[in-house]
Amino acid sequence: MSELPPCDAFVDGRWVPGSQRFSVKDPFDDALIAEVTDSDDAMIDAAVDAAARAFPGWKRRPGPERGRLLAQLAQRMLSAERRLAELCTRENGKALKESIAEVRYAASFFSWFAGEAERTYGETIPASQPGQRLTVIREPVGPAALITPWNFPYAMLTRKIGAALAAGCTIVAKPAALTPLSALALAQLAETVGIPPGVINIVPAADGGRAGGRLCGAAAIRKISFTGSTQVGMVLMRNAAADLKRVSLELGGNAPFVVLADADIDAAVSGAMVAKFRNTGQSCVAANRFIVDASVADTFTTKLCASVARLVVGRGLDPDVDIGPLVDDASVAKVKRLLEDAIGRGAKVLLGAPPDGKTRLVAPIVLAGITPQMQLWREEIFGPVVAIRTAADEADAIAQANDTEFGLVSYLYTQNGARQIRVAEAMESGMVGVNEGLVSTPQAPFGGIKHSGMGREGSRHGIDDYSNLKYIATRIG
Ligand code: NAP
User: Fold this and answer.
1) Which of 242, 290, 325, 420 is 20 to 30 A from 78, comparing alpha carbons?
2) pLDDT tens digits along 86-127
3) Could you tell me the residue range of the domain that residue 409 belongs to?
4) Are 321 and 225 within one domain?
């Protein structure tokens, strides 16, 4: 079994045990993995103080030097890939091959921002008056609070830490209570590359509301970056207003997966398998609503069912498994509720059966005959459920796709070039996959609109959320 990281808070470069601890369990069988320090308010305050003390020194370091440390951290992650992946599967449940992919994806944010640390460029602006020089420089916002969810415990954190450290910010991270070990393993690697004490602090906690509230409310915190549910994101934004802290929010989604009449159906099915089933459907960019032109709906559905039937459900650590358990009982209950509602309102089960609620292993289910009144059409399913509705034509498909308060990602399958542009531009979301079921990559700006949040992570824009522009007007003659 994979070696565990220290199971305490990581504050000012030291592992700090707390008197209270909470259990981290394997979602597959509830086996105890570790008892982790439940950071109390004093530990959270100490972490914020450490981040505030380390900030001036970290900010002064040349960007390329900060970048070199991030590059080393990426390398350490890749060298420890197997151990980190097993740890992730144990606490999150996802298939081991997906955990390996996540470790690589997570490390790629450190590599990417290692480069960006060298390119935090400013500007020189032509002045309208003679004798004046107008320049703009970037300055780090300050100590940042990072709050992350359980579904991608490495990547959601490295996407933030990479950008923050590259910009010159120090951080205090509060990982999800279900998956703190992945974050602690990252802190352990950060120690080995010589990131200075106080630059990275991790405060695991059993009660996210209490710990997250304490952390985000601290006066020294100048930036809050949150990934999680829309509901909590709204609370954090409201609270941040009291002190005008900068806020970025990566929130929930309700992605439409549109297949138009001229789509390459085999490509659409392959894309659907990735977009739907990654992490057992527990992804913010999971395809939630399949909207298929009526003329190709039968062909698409038949082929999709054939692919779905081949998925292997089981314990994530078993090498052949594609679909691990859902993360907790509440997630199983939610999927069960959504399915009962849909079937009760007339949805037709084409493959699989609703979970009995006795195990967290939920086999994939394909449903047709969906109507917009069904709860699974309006809410994030976060499970291996395919819900298919037909569309009359392109305009109907766009109207259906946009009929949601969310706007993270949309998927579109069509072989017509003009249509690809027209429909992608009409879709109300921060990202669009055109004949592509996986859009996430460190080079591109990830983020949503509407109730899916604000701010962008990854790409050259990722630094923006952690930096202030300072304009300097200088009289030079
Ligand atoms: P969540 O309940 O909002 O929790 C996310 C994080 O916030 C956890 O660390 C949680 O701690 C903490 N938290 C809970 N209540 C808080 C409060 N009142 N103040 C401060 N922090 C608080 O979300 P989740 O169920 O873990 O994650 C799933 C959601 O995340 C889905 O909606 C998914 O779409 C979204 N997500 C979005 C993206 C994106 O990039 N847009 C990526 C991944 C996931 P505890 O663990 O202790 O509750």
Assistant:
1) 325
2) 999 999 999 999 999 999 999 999 999 999 999 999 999 999
3) 255-441
4) no
Residue 467's SS3 state is strand
Is residue 77 over pLDDT 80?
yes
Length of the chain equals: 477
pLDDT tens-digit series, residues 152-190: 999 999 999 999 999 999 999 999 999 999 999 999 999
**Annotation marks residue 86 as catalytic:** no
**Number of separate domains in the chain:** 2
Q: Is 284 a catalytic residue?
A: yes
pLDDT of residue 357: 81
Rounded (to 5) percent helix, strand, coil in the chain: 40, 20, 35
The set of protein residues with a Cβ atom below 6 angstroms from ligand 1 is 147-152, 156, 174, 176-178, 208-209, 212-213, 227-229, 232, 235-236, 250-253, 284, 380, 408, 448, 453
Residue in 7, 88, 169, 284 annotated catalytic: 284
The enclosing H or E element of 291 equals strand 287-293
Ligand 1 atom nearest the C-alpha of 232 is 3
Is the whole-model pTM more than 0.85?
yes
> Where are the alpha helices (H) located in 117-264, listed in sequence order?
155-167, 180-193, 208-217, 230-241
